[in-house]
Amino acid sequence: MKPLGLILSLLSASFSLAIARCARHSTITRSCYEKATPQQFPELLELHKSLVEIPSVSDSEGAVGRFLQDYLAQRGYTVYAQPVEGGDGDRHNIFAYLGGSNRTQVLVTSHIDTRRGTELWGRGTVDAKGSVAAQIAAVESLRRGHGIAEEGGDVALLTAAAAWRRLTTSVSGDGRAVIFGEPTEGKLARGHKGILSVSLAAAGKAGHSGYPEPGANAIDTLVRGLASLQLAELPRSEEFGNTTLNVGVIQGGVADNVIPAQASASALVRLATDRVNDTIAIIERAVHEASPGVQTEFPYSQGPVPIDYDVEGFETVILNYGTDIPNLKGNHKRYLYGPGSIHVAHSDQEHLDVSDLEAAVQDYSTLISKVLTR
Ligand SMILES: *[C@@H]1O[C@H](CO)[C@@H](O)[C@H](O)[C@H]1NC(C)=O
Ligand SMILES: *[C@@H]1O[C@H](CO)[C@@H](O)[C@H](O)[C@H]1NC(C)=O
Ligand SMILES: *[C@@H]1O[C@H](CO)[C@@H](O)[C@H](O)[C@H]1NC(C)=O
Questions:
Q1: CA distance 77 to 270
Q2: Boundaries of each Peptidase M20 dimerisation domain copy (predicted)?
Q3: Pocket residue to mutate for ligand 1, from 94, 95, 102, 107, most atoms within 8 A of Cβ
């Protein structure tokens, strides 16, 4: 390796390390970003830092929305803040485009809320503020290189406060393509699994634990059903792999010396086939054969979602998480790409390498350009 090349690669390795290391602490310090300032996309790290520093747990995304609104308006975009119902009443989807027409060939979109788990919640470094920062930097870099028309019509940016499904009426993709940003480890998604939510409930008869005979233990009934459910063989497919099941919530009982009268659980199935009804039938059979007293309900389902990946030069991947892609209707191509890994998103280990963020800017630029020149 030539000395210059060596120095450059050492520098870039230390940039990557810097953010990853800093991000392990609960707040990213200013010096993390200073140590890691890249030359290629001047706005990238500053923007990412600003986005990550503004909290935006789902249902209260007001501040980060206003920041983006100002940021984009200052750069000459026409910005429309679409109010979103729910949450603390101060949340907006930010829709931005160049020129006077909001009808564009490409819509580039991601979400700005950071998901709240039951115990841990990520700061959104990866999911999905990495995508938002890289998408904006990509559009800005294309503008600088005259890859998109300054007078508009090519690209619109949409940052959703919570869910794209709220946008279907106002921004359905009439253009050629919508590019979605979620963590895909820098790969182009060929599709993602579907979802089936399962609610289970058992009713019993309360009583004193010392005298079990007249009572009926709802927890015992439920647990027998759950144990059988976990052994059920769910349909798989070549493209999407195994259908998997997670029992994520279990509730019931009041005290260890009282026979519980109620117990319930909920599970989420990640569907690898669109045979939703078959999967429901398998689950019902497994639960009811082992424990007839358990009631099952299936409040929500969505089959696996195939996604376009007809752009050369990308590794591709099937993702096991859901997105709102099926909710954005329209006759357009759909691409899904983003920096970072879902394995660290939503946790206090959430972090992103600067090199991945920079690669994402390049890749979003490529995707946008390829669609525009078709
Ligand atoms: C797009 O522009 C049209 C015409 O000006 C307008 O009716 C519509 O509300 C706009 N939509 C958004 C999301 O800005
Ligand atoms: C899918 O399930 C089969 C059978 O249970 C298992 O052997 C295999 O390792 C699973 N594949 C993946 C990718 O988890
Ligand atoms: C699945 O079951 C529902 C409810 O029973 C029914 O309305 C629907 O048509 C079924 N879908 C298929 C593909 O069989």
A1: 39
A2: 191-286
A3: 102
Give all strands (DSSP E) within the chain, no chain letters.
78-83, 92-99, 106-111, 152-160, 177-181, 188-192, 194-203, 207-208, 244-252, 258-259, 262-271, 295-302, 305-306, 316-319, 333-336
All residues at 6 or more sequence positions from 29 whose CB lies less than 8 Å from its CB, including other chains: 22
Distance 242 CA to ligand 2 centre (A): 6
DSSP string, 318-352: EESS--SGGGS-SSSEEEE--SS-TTTTTSTT---
Residue 26 DSSP symbol: S
Q: Taking Cα atoms as reference points, which of 105, 195, 222, 114 lies closest to residue 153?
A: 105
10 Å CB burial of residue 121 (0-12, 13-18, 19+) is middle
Name the pTM for this structure: 0.82
Q: Per-10-residue mean pLDDT for the chain, 374 residues long? A: 44 43 44 54 84 68 86 95 74 88 88 47 58 94 93 89 52 75 93 97 94 94 98 97 97 96 97 97 98 97 96 95 82 90 63 82 95 89
Return the ligand 1 atom nearest residue 171 CA: 13
* Active-site hit among 43, 119, 150, 312: 150
- For atom 8 of ligand 1, which residue has the closest CA? 170
Instruction: Provide CB contacts within 8 A for 216, sequence distance 6+.
Output: 204, 205, 259
